[in-house]
Write a structure and sequence with these properties.
Layout (H helix, E strand, L loop, with lengths): L2 H26 L8 H6 L2 H4 L13 H8 L3 E7 L11 H6 L16 E8 L5 E5 H4 L4 E5 L5 E10 L4 E5 L17
Antiparallel strand pairs: 1-2, 1-4, 2-3, 3-6, 4-5, 5-6
């Protein structure tokens, strides 16, 4: 058998196999009715939850839960400052041979800032946030939902679990109560 005959045989076998596969698939696929976009929307799972016969209990309602905890969620902004003699190091600039623009803290230079969120856990100002947000910070600013601002101090950190405990000097703050998942 020559290479030409072998190639033609493989081509013929491929064509026959493709035709058989198409015929087999066409028998397996049932024709479906064309549905409009509106019909699809009315049959979606989300719309099944909107009927009069279905109500979401308050304990698992996201809107109600968010309304309860939102006043206790805070914005955490950490500023990291270096001593006046330490220069800012940019590896990209070093790689391309671009000279540094000055020293950290000099004119036109901004101190690095980290940002994140936290949750007030007691009415006297204790806040839980992520450790990586406040790690190495020289100043930590807290913004409440009502736009009041405070300076926080770090009470403790745990890099292993990425948690940090902060404290602001305020009283009567909204806070999130701890729950017990074993009691549900």
């Amino acid at each position: 058998m020559s290479k030409k005959q072998f190639f033609l045989g493989m081509l013929l076998a491929s064509l026959i196999g493709g035709i058989v596969a198409l015929v087999g698939v066409s028998f397996l696929i049932q024709p479906q009715e064309a549905t409009s976009f509106d019909e699809k929307q009315q049959t979606s799972f989300v719309n099944l939850l909107n009927g009069e016969n279905f109500t979401i209990p308050d304990g698992i309602n996201f809107v109600a839960s968010a309304g309860i905890v939102t006043p206790a969620v805070v914005h955490v902004k950490s500023t990291i400052s270096y001593g006046g003699t330490r220069s800012q190091r940019d590896p990209i600039q070093e790689f391309f041979g671009i000279p540094p623009r000055g020293r950290q803290g000099g004119p036109g230079m901004q101190a690095p800032v980290s940002s994140g969120s936290g949750v007030i856990i007691s009415e006297d100002g204790y806040i839980v946030t992520n450790n990586h947000v406040v790690d190495g910070a020289s100043q930590i600013d807290i913004s409440l939902e009502n736009n009041k601002r405070y300076v926080a101090k770090v009470i403790g950190t745990d890099p292993t679990t990425d948690l940090a405990l902060l404290k602001i000097e305020a009283n009567g703050l909204p806070f999130v109560k701890f729950g017990d998942s074993d009691q549900t």
